[in-house]
Structures are given as structure tokens and as C-alpha cells.
Amino acid sequence: MTSSRTEPKYTVPGLSVQDGGKLIELLRLRLHALNDLSLTLKHIHWNVVGPHFIAIHEMLDPQVDRVRAMADDTAERVSALGGVPVGTPGALVAERTWDDYDVGRADAIAHLGALDLVYTGIVESHRAALAEVGKFDPVTEDLLIEQLRSLEQFQWFVRAHLESSGGDLATAGTHTETEAARSAHEDGAR
């Protein structure tokens, strides 16, 4: 059995095996983040209630499909670099650096408040990985840029439900998904 965390024996032409290993390591957590995001989006899809149910329910399916495609592209890049992509739930839970999504059945605005924070976390961590890979691999950089374009657009879709006409976000100043859900729900109830 081959470990997913060893330096590859080969990588793509033009990169050193050491640089290939760095890319694999950076993409490992991006793969976990994308797999986690697709599951979180489906969780919200199944647990959203209230008057905005159908709009949010239907908005999330295309996001799930695109995020799953991002995960597939990321895993295939890891393989091309000579690595072993691991997409098992156990590996995701053991290696992730973030907490599990903690909002259950809730109204649409509450879920969107929490999802705004989820998207903030994944966009920030994708940008951090992008800054690293941009130093030595334009192909992986391009992959992450393309993913960020979609992730930022999806966050914009979410934030459109949370933004006042004056440009204020209902989730401003919140630090946890539970706080963001509560703040968005309270703001929406006003």
C-alpha cells in the first residue's frame, strides 16, 4: 500500500520531484476542503426550510456539481504530479484544519449566513495555496484561479441574500457558523 504523504517518485516534466511533492501536499488539503464543501452544500440543501426554501434548494445543486468537478480536477492534478489523491471520509476528518458544519435544520437565511463563513474560509485557504503554487507552477496556479472564480461567485450568490441595500452584510463581525446563522436569521426577521 502506498502512502499519500510521501514524496513522489516522479512528477510532471519541468518540475523537480521536491516541488511536485510540495504541490501534492498543498492540493491534499484543497481536495479535502472541496469534498467537505460539497457535502456541506448537500447538507444545507436537505435541511433548509422556510419561505425561501425552493430558491436556496435549487441554487445549491449547481454549486454542488461544480464543487464536485473541482474536487475531481484537484485529485487528477495530484495524480498527474505523481501523488496519490485520497478522498476517503476518514482522511478528510483526520487531516482537515477546520470544524464540521454545525447548523442542522434551519431557515434559508440562517443557513446562508453560516454558508457565507464557510465560503470565506475556503476562499481564503485557496488564496493562500494559490500564493504558494504561483511561485513555481503556473498549471496548478491556473487550476486554483479557475476554482476561485467559481467559489467567489458562489459566495456572491449567498451574500446577495444577506446584504442590505446599503451594502451591509448580516454576517459582519461574526466568527462562527452558529453566530453567522443567528445574526442572518435575526437580520432577516427585522
Average pLDDT metric: 94
Strand content: under 5%
Trace the largest sheet across and list its strands. 1-2
Instruction: Report Rg.
Output: 18 Å
Q: Could you give the distance between the termini?
A: 57 Å
Helix content: 55-70%
Shape: elongated
- Category from helices, strands and their pairing: mainly alpha
> Which ranges are low-confidence, i.e. pLDDT below 50, for 5 or more consecutive residues?
none
Secondary structure: number of strands = 2
Output the number of helix runs: 6
Largest sheet: 2 strands, parallel
Please identify which CATH superfamily we are dealing with. Ferritin, core subunit, four-helix bundle
Task: Tell me about this structure.
The chain is an all-alpha fold and 190 residues long. The chain has a single domain, classed as Ferritin, CATH 1.20.1260.10. It is built from six helices and two strands. The chain has helices at 17-47, 53-80, 89-95, 108-133, 138-160, 177-189; strands at residues 48-49, 106-107. Strands 1-2 form a two-stranded parallel sheet. Helix 1 (17-47) packs across helix 3 and helix 4 (108-133) crosses helix 6. The longest helix is centred in the first third of the chain and has 31 residues, at 17-47.
What attributes characterize this protein structure?
Ferritin-like_SF, elongated, Ferritin, 2 strands, Ferritin_DPS_dom, DNA starvation/stationary phase protection protein, two-stranded parallel sheet, 6 helices, mainly alpha, DPS_DNA-bd, ferric iron binding, 190 residues
